[in-house]
Design goal:
The protein has helices spanning about 50-55, 80-90, 105-115, 120-135, 150-160, 180-195, 210, 235-245; strands at about 10-20, 20-35, 40-45, 65-70, 75, 90-95, 170, 200-205, 215-220, 225-230. With about 240 residues, the protein is of the alpha/beta class. It has a single domain, classed as Rossmann fold, CATH 3.40.50.300. Strands 6-7-8-3-9-10 form a six-stranded mixed sheet. Strands 2-1-4-5 form a four-stranded antiparallel sheet, with helices on one face. α3 (about 105-115) packs across α4, α4 (about 120-135) packs across α5 and α5 packs parallel to α6. The mean pLDDT is about 90.
């Protein structure tokens, strides 16, 4: 079997977690292909395997069996150091609880991944400014998280996820802690970044507000793909064309 040309290729992945003297199967021979530039939601009830699948794609966890390719790289064959480098350089994360550093300003939170990457100070300033501008928070750069609304905090989290210029952004229940107004604004923002910058977004969610704006929805049930559909029958190419128009 050869790795696919897709950005993400999940190949017959199973993930089991030990429980007492047995094991719980979170994913059961699950397969998925995601092309560059897609805007995709992994949906399903609690316990369906959404977050587990997202963590495996993000190289936060490893499958019990099966393989995951990111940009053609078999992540199961990587050393811990190379796995960390892949995660740092190619993948951005947006978490349900924001995960911002409370004593840092918005700009400092966004800058932090670049410090880890060793980006020089001048480039860091430029890229942080661009990232905050792209999420509409240029005027809030010097505010700490406690002075920002929930919607603004999640926008900072999105800016932090994209500042490293990743190929892929993974978002775990990104709208769960937001009211409808802020959730809608965040969805529109991420869709705009997807269209304008060509960023690939994969979400785990059960939020119908998000699903209504998602061109492709993969539904999981008991750790298996129940359905994989494009909204109104649109293909990936048609979705990309809609971004351009």
């Amino acid at each position: 079997m050869h790795p696919s040309d897709d950005l993400v290729h999940v190949d017959a992945v199973t993930r089991k977690f030990p429980l007492d003297h047995s094991a719980v199967t979170a994913l059961d021979h699950t397969s998925l292909r995601v092309a560059a530039g897609e805007f995709l939601a992994i949906a399903g009830p609690s316990g369906s395997g959404k977050s587990t699948l997202l963590n495996l794609i993000g190289c936060i966890d490893k499958p019990t069996s099966g393989r995951i390719f990111i940009d053609g790289v078999d992540t199961s064959q990587l050393s811990p150091a190379r796995t960390t480098a892949l995660r740092r350089e190619r993948i951005g994360f947006v978490f349900q609880t924001f995960n911002l550093i409370p004593v840092f300003t918005a700009a400092e939170n966004v800058e932090f991944p670049l410090l880890i990457q060793g980006v020089n100070a001048s480039d860091r300033r430029t890229r942080v400014t661009e990232a905050l501008e792209s999420v509409g928070l240029a005027g809030r750069a010097h505010h700490r998280p406690d002075l920002l609304s929930g919607g603004e905090r999640q926008r900072v989290a999105v800016a932090r996820a994209i500042v490293g210029r990743p190929a892929l952004v993974l978002a775990d229940e990104p709208t769960a802690n937001l009211d409808t107004r802020n959730a809608t604004q965040l969805i529109e923002l991420m869709r705009d970044l997807n269209c304008r910058l060509g960023l690939t977004f994969i979400f785990s969610t059960h939020d119908q507000r998000l699903l209504e704006h998602t061109p492709r929805i993969v539904r999981l049930t008991d750790g298996q793909v129940e359905s994989d559909s494009h909204s109104q029958g649109e293909s990936h190419g048609q979705v990309l064309a809609a971004c351009v128009s």
